[in-house]
Amino acid sequence: MCLICSNEQTTRYLLTAPALNVRRLVLVLSILTFLSCSTDRITKHGPPPFLVSITTDVRSMFAGQRVQFVATAKDATGKAISDATFSWSSSNSAAISITSDGMASAVAFGSSTISATSEGVTTTVDVQVLHDPIVFVHGFHASGAVWATMVDRLKADGWTDAPLVTFTYDSDVSNATTAALIQTKVDSLLAATGAKKVDFITHSMGGLSSRYFSKNLSGSEKIDALVFLGTPNHGTTLAGLCPIQSCLEMRPGSSFLSALNAGDETPGNARYATWWTPCDQATTPPESAALTGATNTETACMSHNDLYINSTVYAQVRDWVR
Question: In which residue ranges of the chain is CATH 2.60.40.1080 found?
């Protein structure tokens, strides 16, 4: 009901006041009518300001993580509106998808602006999907130090948001023993970071223990991408010159390799990729590195150890784990 229609005393005064001329009367009547009758300018929950906010400390996620975002609305007095409804959206659903009730799922590395809207009022929060942690596994009689060049390149290319883990292990023991060590490291890494999966970059024999972890220790559920550089996946004749346990396992036709390659050579949902050089002097024959079901890349002629420092191979590996 309009104020001017409901306040008889005010109306009677305005119509009889001798000091008001017609022009002033029209002006006053117009103002009263606007203030009292313009309900179309007032939202369901009162006049502006009508505030919407997203309550969260989340500014980053790892791929595979899910976060419930919560929005609130307040009226002009600052009182929370319990029956407010919201629509949710993501500016980059390839990085983060979001449901109609605000459940966000991190899909892949990237960033997105999450929006919540109620009664035409929108608030946003920017969220980054981080790179997966990367575990580097060196080869026979090497050490974690061999990855220094690749780690430095990855950091220069933006891998500063997730751990890049190198370590040194006893490469004389069985690859199955090393796989158990890898399992412990991965579980600790996932628990510490909150990440759902890790990436693996391996060289030479390090790929065999990593494959054992993936196939036999439920590792494929925790891995997004696997990289094998010059790994003797089907054995190397050079291992015939070495009598220790890990070498025995690398011999073509060994019981270890036969079991590892039985059935699916690339089990689970992890993404497998191999790089091998036709000039490899350690993995012989060089094409032993290729895996059925993997993306296999033959490189230019380079040495076995050049595989982890060559700039072209690095760029391809970087793009694969991204």
Answer: 51-129
Order of strands across the sheet with 87-90? 60-62, 121-130, 110-118, 87-90
Residue 286 one-letter amino acid: P
Q: What is the DSSP string of 24-69?
A: HHHHHHHHHHHHHH-GGGSBTTBSSP-EEEEE----EEETT-EEE-
- The SS3 assignment for 3 reads helix
pTM: 0.80
The identity of residue 233, as a single letter, is N
Asked if pLDDT for residue 195 goes beyond 90, the answer is: yes
- Which tokens hold the place of 211? 């494959």
Query: Of 271, 286, 168, whose CA–CA distance to 230 is shortest?
Result: 286
- CATH T-level topology, domain 131-321: Rossmann fold (3.40.50)
CATH number attached to the domain at 51-129: 2.60.40.1080
Binned at pLDDT 50, 70 and 90, residue 292 comes out as very high
